[in-house]
Write a structure and sequence with these properties.
The complex is a heterodimer. Chain A has eight helices and seven strands. By secondary structure, chain A is an alpha+beta fold. In chain A, helix 1 crosses helix 3 and helix 2 crosses helix 3. The radius of gyration of chain A is 25 Å and the shape is extended. The relative contact order of chain A is 0.08. Chain B contains ten helices and no strands. Classes of the chains: A alpha+beta, B mainly alpha. At the A-B interface, helix 1, helix 3, helix 4, helix 5 and helix 6 of A face helix 1, helix 2, helix 3, helix 4 and helix 5 of B.
């Protein structure tokens, strides 16, 4: 078990870890944790991840130079404001903005006293909000890119390394509850490198990895809940190109740093290959 | 209020959060020069809005302005950042782009434990999608509440929670935070 695997209470567990729950919820989730190995493990990982970040990641404080630059800029801004008495929110020449035209931020309603109230009400709403949010395309794209990026970390690319679809396909048996279409496109210049079990939001997905020269292509596949036809749709996200579509009851997302035209070509070949 | 005391109050209430602003900008933009420019612009903008600021949480207010300014820059210079993300990713996974793709490391777990240097952790954090990265920075470094993060990043609390979870899971897996024995 790990943070990958799901007890459906992990987000509540995380909320407890972040001090967001009220006393009653806190007691309930703590009690649950005692009897749930998954949550105990997840808790341990939350602790370790926090320690790693706080101990080892860089915190970039403002430089002394920036401090000086700001002192000077603020001094002249204050002088400018003084000269423009009666117009205290006069735009600052240094910033190059006429802020009088942009009062939205100062009046943003969220800002006002809601902060304290929110803690209690939010905790109750949280559980409901979380588990019933349908994923928007952009959210899926986030997850797909995250999966691609993660696959490039050492040791994360493949669970089964094989350029033979007859090895890769049976490997997924029993790991996912569907049969992903595994195709080898070596003859067309896209050799199959292997497969991987991945996890997007709350489901296991099959990841097929192809190569094109030095570039990797991740093909993520899972069963569709809602049938939807049409040609592949294209997105780009964080510098990666994405194509996604549905066919044969499966949702297919393809992500790569390959340029858009070449990835489109890959997808065309993949779809036409039996 | 006179402008002088306004400036003094601004420094005491808002500018004390300059480090948080600098850290957020740097982690969003991943470029020290751009980050400082964004912080300067955001602070001056905050100063000009300050007379009408009636809130209680100046830190979150400043961070929201910084975040908006940083996103504006990222939108403008997106092409540059697309390249950078790749560099970062290959920095910490040298073989991933090479030819030995089919040969997973012998003992990735212990290897990763050894490599768990600051640079490594920074690279992992930097390789997260920016939406996840900002959530984890605001939570773990600034210790902001879900509500504050939701408001700064302009998404529902539920989204903050799932992004935080995804960020932590990715970091935990990538950093090879040791799996407890079972």
């Amino acid at each position: 078990m790990s943070m990958r695997d799901g007890c459906d209470k992990v987000l509540l567990l995380q909320a407890e870890f972040d001090g967001e729950l009220d006393a009653a919820q806190s007691i309930a989730i703590t009690r649950h944790r005692e009897s749930c190995a998954c949550c105990r493990d997840a808790w341990q990982r939350l602790v370790e991840t926090r320690r790693t970040l706080r101990d080892r990641a860089s915190y970039h404080k403002a430089s002394a130079v920036l401090g000086q630059r700001l002192d000077q800029a603020l001094a002249s801004a204050a002088r400018a404001a003084g000269r423009e008495a009666g117009l205290p929110d006069r735009g600052l020449s240094e910033a190059g903005h006429d802020t009088r035209r942009r009062p939205w931020l100062a009046f943003a309603p969220w800002w006002r006293p809601a902060l304290g109230f929110a803690a209690g009400a939010a905790a109750a709403a949280i559980a409901i909000l979380l588990f019933f949010q349908p994923l928007a395309t952009t959210e899926i794209a986030d997850l797909v890119v995250a999966s691609h990026v993660r696959s490039m970390q050492p040791g994360h690319l493949l669970d089964v390394a094989s350029n033979d679809q007859h090895n890769v396909k049976p490997w997924f048996d029993g790991k996912v509850d569907f049969a992903p279409p595994v195709k080898n496109l070596a003859d067309q210049g896209f050799p199959l490198v292997g497969g991987r079990l991945d996890y997007l939001q709350d489901r296991n997905v099959a990841a097929l990895v192809y190569r094109s020269g030095p570039h990797l292509i991740n093909v993520l596949i899972w069963p569709s809940e809602v049938a939807e036809g049409g040609e592949p749709r294209q997105l780009d996200k964080g510098g990666f190109n994405i194509l996604h579509w549905q066919e044969g009851g499966m949702v297919v997302w393809v992500v790569s740093d390959l340029d858009a035209a070449k990835l489109q070509n890959f997808v065309t070949i993949w779809r036409n290959h039996d | 209020m006179s402008d002088d005391s306004g400036a003094a109050r601004f420094k005491a209430e808002v500018l004390v959060h300059l480090d948080a602003a600098a850290n957020l900008a740097r982690w969003l933009l991943r470029n020290p020069v751009e980050a400082e420019d964004v912080v300067q612009e955001a602070v001056l903008r905050a100063f000009s809005y300050y007379p009408s600021f009636r809130g209680v949480n100046a830190r979150a207010w400043l961070l929201q302005i910084v975040r908006n300014a940083a996103y504006a820059v990222m939108k403008k210079t997106r092409g540059i950042h697309m390249v950078k993300l790749h560099e970062d990713a290959s920095d910490n996974a040298e073989s991933a782009w090479g030819i030995d793709l089919v040969d997973p490391a012998g003992d990735p777990e212990s290897l990763l434990m050894q490599q768990e240097t600051r640079r490594e952790i920074d690279a992992l954090l930097g390789a997260l999608p920016v939406e996840l990265r900002e959530c984890i920075i605001l939570r773990e470094f600034e210790e902001l509440s879900y509500r504050e993060i939701a408001e700064i990043t302009a998404v529902p609390i539920g989204t903050v929670m799932s992004r935080l979870w995804r960020a932590r899971r990715l970091l935990s897996e990538a950093a090879g935070v040791k799996e407890p024995a079972r």
